[in-house]
UniProtKB/TrEMBL annotation:
Catalytic reactions of this protein: ATP + protein L-histidine = ADP + protein N-phospho-L-histidine
UniProt-listed Enzyme Commission number(s): 2.7.13.3
Domain Nitrate/nitrite sensing protein: residue ranges: 69-305
Leading EC class: transferase
InterPro entries per the UniProt record, alphabetical: 2C_sensor_his_kinase, HATPase_C_sf, HATPase_dom, Nitrate/nitrite_sensing
Organism in which the protein naturally occurs: Streptomyces flaveus
Protein name: histidine kinase
Amino acid sequence: MTGNVLTKLPTLPALPGWNSIRGRMAIVLAVPTCLLLVLTGLGVADRAADWSAARGTEAQVGVLLRVQDLVREVQRERGLTNGLLGGAEEYQDDVRNQRDRTDDARSALRTVLSEESGDLPDAASSALDDAQLPLADLPATRAEVDAGTADRADTLAYYTKAVTALIDAESAGAAHGERRITEGVQALQALARATEAVALERGSLNGVFAAGRFRGGEYLDFTEIRATRLAALGQFRQLATSAQQSDLDAAFRTAAARRVSGYETQAERGADGSSLNVAPARWWRDMTTLVDDLHDVQRTVGDDVRADAADSGSAATRELGGFLGLGALIVAVAVALAVISARSITRPLGALADEADAVAGTRLPTVVKRIQEADPDTPQPGDPDGSDRTQLPGSAREITRLAAALRNVEHTAVGLAAEQAVLRRNSTESLASLGRRNQTLLRRQLGLITALENQEIDPDALAELFELDHLATRMRRNAESLLVLAGEEAPARSWPGMVSVTEVVQSAVSEVEQYRRVTAVDVAACRIRGHAVAELSHLLAELLENALMFSPPQQPVEVYGWQDGAEYCLAVVDRGIGMTLERMAEANALLSGSGSFLTAPTRFLGHHVVGALASRLGAHVELRPTAGSGVTAYVALPAVLVQEPSSTAMMSG
């Protein structure tokens, strides 16, 4: 059915390299990827950068205007406070009102910063936060002014420092974008410095006029402020547009500005410390008008920059949408090409994967099982499943080679399975044959030793015969272990009726080398069915052998037995070197009867023997750590192998 579907697909044009998977993928990916990266990557990145810069500039200008509002209020408070400290007591009410306006401006700035922090550059946001730190001392400064302990020069310097910090923070993290936007932001910052110079001059001369003359270095400060104002205004004129320059000229042509110029001329005549007869209130009123006009120009410049940034962001958004649309078109073309080419690749590979699943899940296990169960003299068919193979659809060389490789793997796996089956069968039969031979010889040897023991009267010789008898008994157990590993039936030794568990433990102890170190500490009375005695004794002997081998020579190995419901439990306890948790988990897996010593070699064949015997008896064997150190082997015998203590007592009676 799959082949019929594939034959109906339209034939693709003969492109170079189309007959190989590598060539097809190169054609599908190379052209659309290059177009996508070259045409859309650079364009999208550039437009996205412009859009981000425009949005950041728009947000930053909005914040800067709020900063200028705070600067304006701090400048007013500075001027009024300086006049108050200069002796103009009429400013007291104005100072209190101005303080409220300053606090409102601070709150408004904090609100804007919290709302616009995500759009501001990190440097700008951090600088604006730091710039507000000097204002933290504002309540203390106000308290000194109200108490009459404030120094006029120091107070003026404090306010000036706070204003300067705010203005300097405006230039941090300046947005980079189009030239007109960048120049607009720089013009706004230059005008802010010029406005600060004018406001500082207002506050400084307000105190001078209130005092009636220049004192100390106040005149020098006055000249420096005017020089700073002229430099900042010159920079603004270089960056501002003609309309913005006209607004600035209009601010300096007002009647108030002309009167301010006259007041400044009078102040220049007081450089020698002579008396100045300028009313502070008139100076403050006219100078405040000029400062307010300059702030209006600032707001106009800021609005122009925000409008330019908004226009730039809109243009960048439109261009970004165009580039993204082009990118989407390229992606659509690439997807269409990928789908067409993928259908010609994935369908043959899917058919090949289905065949591989059939081989791994059905055909190969069936063939391997048949080989393992078949007579070794019966020849096996060459084809794993004895059926003809159909040709896989698809024309690519790699698919054809992959199908051939899969079939080679299947044939090789079947061959290896046959070899392994023969090897395992031969190994098992060899072990069983060797075990039976050893068992026969050892049975004859034990009979001969027993006869010699019965005839011997010399105590020393008899002791040596007993040692030889014990050694032969251990060898018989090893021979029986070979039969167990080979999967042979239970040993021929069996007992009629029931046998006490104490006798079973004693039988197991007699089959280990260091039997003198084994102590039956507390073994509760119980009887074991005779057909299971030999295998249970063998199982316990293997556990005792391991416990003796991995514990100190002077340390005894203890055996415990107790009734647990319908089951009977035995424990072989040693206090030796112990086992790691990982190694103990591996040993318990073997003791559960899982795994074969032919497929999973191990140094501890005794664990395989115990696991096999436990499976035959239906018993559960598990290793656990001994308290302190060492290992405890627990053996749980099922109820079908034991007789309850009450029944045992009745039989004994």
